[in-house]
Fold this protein.
Amino acid sequence: MKNLRTYVLCTSMIFASIFAAGQTQKIPVNEPDYNKPHLFDNLPAKISFDPATFTGQFNKPTGSTISTSLSKDAMIPFEGKIESQVVEENGRIEKLSIQSTNYPGATFNLTRITSDDGTIRYIGRLISFRHGDLFILQQINGRYELVKKNFYDLVNE
């Protein structure tokens, strides 16, 4: 009978260790894909941006198509369809989202913010989640510029 208890105890220990090993938790690792193709390789690293070229787009209805230039210094065409428009804070914040047709998969998000003293500033980005590059709208020395960045400089996956 003593031998039977030993065998049962050893067998139960073996099963307990097998099932305990199955309880390990594997943490999924989401490594960024640094090999995404670049969509804006043919464009310069900085583009002088004139917000006046997009001012009229805020008044167009959703679904409208637009055709304009990203810069008035260099002819960089931008074509697309207005996907959404949002007006918040009694018209002080206007958001415009344009799905590009000449840069497939890219969306240009532009926000116009009017402060209490009447000054207007713009925030925006031209981004595609399928590609490895994007443009951020920045105000540098009083002028707006679209500055090219790597996708993973802005987005964490």
